[in-house]
Give the backbone structure.
Amino acid sequence: MQAEQTTILQGTLDMLILKSLVAGEMHGLGVSRRIEQLTGGTFSVKPGSLFPALHRMEEEGWISAFWGDSENNRRAKYYRLTKAGRKQLEVETRRWGRISWAIAQALEA
Amino acid sequence: MPLLVEVRSFLRNLFSSRRVDGDLDREIHSHLEMLIDENIRAGMPPKEAQRAARIELGGSEQVKEQVREARIGNWLHSVLSDCRYGIRQLRKNPGFAAAAVVTLAVAIGANAVVFSALNALILRPLNVPQAQSLYATERTSDMWSYESYPNYLDLRDRNRSFDGLAAYTISQAGLDTGENPSRAWVVEVSGNYFDVLGIQPYLGRFFHGSDEHGPNSAPYIVLTYAYWHSHFQDDRGVVGRTVQLNKHPFTVVGVAPPEFHGTLLIFSPDLFVPIVDQEQVDGENLLNDRRDRWVMSAMGHLKAGVTPAQAIADLNSIGSYLKKSYPKDEDQMTFSLARPSLVSDITGRPVRAFLAGLMLLAGLILLAACANLGSLFAARAADRSREVALRLALGASRLRILRQLFTEAMLISLIGGAAGLWGSVVLLHWLSAWRPFPQFPMNVPVNPDANVYGVALLLALASGFLSGAVPVRQVLSTDPYEIVKSGSISRGRRVTVRDLLLAVQIAICAVLVTSSMVAVRGLARSLHSHFGFEPRNAMLVDTALNMAGYGVDRVPTMQRRMIDAMETIPGVTSVGLVSIPPLHMGWNSSKVFTDETTDLRPSNAAAEAIMYNISPEYFHAAGTALLAGRDFTWHDDKNAPRIAVVNWEFASRIFGSTTDTMGRYYKMPNGTRIQVVGIVEDGKYTANLTEDPQPAMFLPILQSPSNETYLVVRSNRDPQQIAAAMRSKLRDLDAGLPSFIQTWNEEMNGALFASRMATASLGILGVMGAMLSITGIFGMAAYSVTKRLKELGIRMALGAQRKEVLQAALGRAFKLLALGSAAGLLLGIVATRVLAFIVYQATPRDPLVLTGVVVVMALLGLLATWIPAQRALSIDPAMLLREE
C-alpha cells in the first residue's frame, strides 16, 4: 500500500508499543493503528510481529492483559501499561535518544 | 516484581498450555473480526473486506506459531514435543529402536564397568582424611615400598617433611577367642599408624606411639568393624577382653570404623596389632635386621607447604646418611613417593596400564557402537528423505528438522545409557562381593559412585550427539523440490560417509577380535607352559606352626612328624616340604655373592636369588627335575657342611657355566659359604607367569629352618579323599594347628589370576566387537539391498546370474569388510604389545592368531550378509517391476 512504510527497526518495536499504551489501555489492533498514527504512517506493525511482542512483554511484566468489550461490542483482549512498563519506557526512550543522537552525529560528520 | 511475573508466566505456559493456547486463538480471531469490521466501515463489500483482513493478518497459524516461539519456556515445550514425536517414531519402528538401544546399552555398560574399576583402583583416593597429601615412600632402584624396620625408624625420626611416618605390614596369625583357634589376617602397624592417618576409633581406643616400649611390649588388638561384626556379633563388651594371638595373651582395645580397611586397597584385614609385637605374630624377630625389607610400606602426610620434590630430597639425604653409617648393609638409597593404595608402583603400574588399555578398548567399543548407530540413523534419514522434504516444503526450518533427528538420537542413547548403567550396577555389585581367593580377604570397592554415573551420562550424551551428527549433511543438502519430484535420492558419489563409518567400525572390531584372540592364546599357553614343577596330582597343605605356638626349637621336629604322617596315607607317592611354594603370592629372596667376593656390601652382590627352604624329597613331590648332582637327605643338618641345590639360571649367572658347577661355593650376605651339590631345571617363581628366568636356590630345611611350612603331597588318588585323610592325620598330630588344604592347581589360581582376568575381559570385549560388526555389516548390507531392489530386479530380468546379482548387491559390503579387517588386524598387532605386560607370551605374530582373526572376520561377514543375500536372490523381477 504505502511505499513509505518501513519495517520497524530492531528493538524499537517494544518502545513504540509501550509508548502507544501510555494513552490508555488498548487491544492489539488499536496498538497497531496507534503506532501508525504516532509515526505518521511511516511504520506499520504486522500481526506476526505485534502479537509475539505483546505476549513477550506481558510475560516480562511490562504490560498486563485482560478481556474487555471493543467499541463494536466485540470481545477483545486489552493491554495496559504496568509500573514496570513505564519504567522500561523511560529506559528505552533514553537509550533511543542516545542512539539517534550518535547516528545523527555520525551522518553529519 | 518482573521476575515473579516471569516465573508465573513460565509455569502457566508449561502447565496450562491448553488454556493459554485457547486464549491466543480467541485473541487472533477477535483481531481478524475487528479488521473485517474496519474494512466494512471503510466501505468494502463483505467478501472483499474478509479477504483484505486475512491478507493483513498473514496466516493465523503462522502468527500463533510466532507467538508461541516468543513465549518463555518455549524451548522446553518444543523439546517435549520433539520427544513425543521421537517416541512415536521409535514405536513405529520397534526393531530399529531395540537394536539401537541394545547396542548402546552394551557399549555404555562396558564402559561403565571398566571405568568403575579404574575409578575404584586408581582415581578414587584412599578413604582416609586428607588422602591427597598422603604418600608412601618407595625405593627408586626397584620401585618397591618395602623397608627394613631399622630403616623405617631412621626415616621416621630423621625426616623433616612428613607429619609423622607410619608403617605397616601384612601377616597371618592364629586367633583364639576361647573357641576354636582360627586364622586371622593381621596388619602389623607402627604405634603412630592411626594417629598419622587421622582415623578415630568406632569403639574403645586405638594404640599410640607411646604404647611402644620395645619388642612384644604392646599386647593390644584393634579389630576391624567387619571382623567385630562377624566374629563378635557386634558385642560392645569386647573392649578390654583378653584373647590369645598365637597363644600369647592380647587385649582388645578398640574397633576401627566401618569404612576403614587399612590402606591396602583391595585387602580387607581382620585386625591390627602393634608392629613391635612382630616376634609373637610372625614367630621371628626382624626388628633389628637392617637388611630384611619386610615392612610393606612407610607412609605419611606431607607437612603443609612441603612439596613432594622437597620431601624426596629430604628422604634421599637420609638415604645417603644410612649408606654412610651402615656401609655393609646399605647401598646408595634413593626414594620416590607413591600413592599408598596399591602397595607400590611395581604392582600399581601393570594394573594401571591394564586398566588404561581396557578403558581404551571399551572406548573403541563405544565408538564402534556410535558408528553403527550413526549409519543406522543415516540410513533412516535417507529412507525418511520424503518426509524431510515434505516438512521442508511446508516451511519447517532445517534447524528444526535436525533438532528433531538429534532428539531421537539423544532419546535412544539416554535409554541405552540407562539400561547399560543398570546392567553395570548389577555386575559391579556382584564383582564387589566376589572373592576370587578363598584364603585372601578381598575388598574390591568397585561399587559405582557419582563419578561413574556422571561418566555414563556424559558418554550417553556424547554417543547420542555423535550418532545423531552422522546424517546432518544429508539433511542439510536435501533439496525438497528434487526429492518430491523424483521420489528418491540418486547419489553420484562413490564413497559415502556411511561406507567410511562402516570401514572404521569393522577396523575397530577387528582390533578387539585380534586382542581377545591373542589373550586367549596366551592363557591357553600359560596353562600348558612349564612351571618348573608339576601342579597336577599334588595337594598343598598350608600349616601355620607359629600360630599354634611352636617356637623355633620345636618347629623342625613337628615338620618332620608331619611329613612322616603324610607318607603313611595310602596312595601318597611322595611328600615334600617347602617354606613358600613357587608361584605363590609371596616369596623370599636374598642377595648372593661369588666365593671370591670379600667385601659383602649389597652393590657387590652377584645376583638376587629367590630362596626356598625345602625338605629332602621336595623335588620329587613337586615334580621338579634334578638335572645334576644329588637331592638333600635328612643328614644334611646343622652339623653337616652348608649346601644348596641351585637352578640352571643361578648356575650360569653366578658361576658363568653350568658344566663344572658341582662342588663349587658361593656366599650369603652374612658371609656363610655354601657348596652347590645339585642343579635343577628353571621354573616360574614369583607370582607372575611373564617373568624372565630368575636365579633360585634351594636350601635344606634343617640347615636353614623356616616356620613357614607348606607340605607338597603327591598322590595318585582323588584329591577329596586325600584331603580328608590328610586333615585327620594333622588333627591327630595337633588339633589346635590351623591348616589349609587345597590342590596345587587351586592354589595357583592366584598366580594366574591376572592373566585370567585379562583374558576374560578381553574375551568379553572381543565378543562385543564381533556382535557390533555383525549388526553394522548387516544393517549396511540390508540397506543396500533394499535401496537397489529395483535395479537388481532389472538385472535379473535381463538375465543376470546369481553370482552377478550377489556381487552387485553385496560387493561393496565385502570390500569394506576386507579393507576394515586388514586395517584392524594391523592396528591390533600394534595394540597387543601392551598386552604383553599381563598376558603370558602375548604375541600377535602367531600364525594361529592371524589366521584366526581372518577366519573370524570372514565368518562374521558371511553371517551378517546371509539374510540380505537371501533376500537379493529371492527377488522376483516380474513382481517387483509390476509393483513399481
Summary: The longest helix of chain A spans residues 83-108.
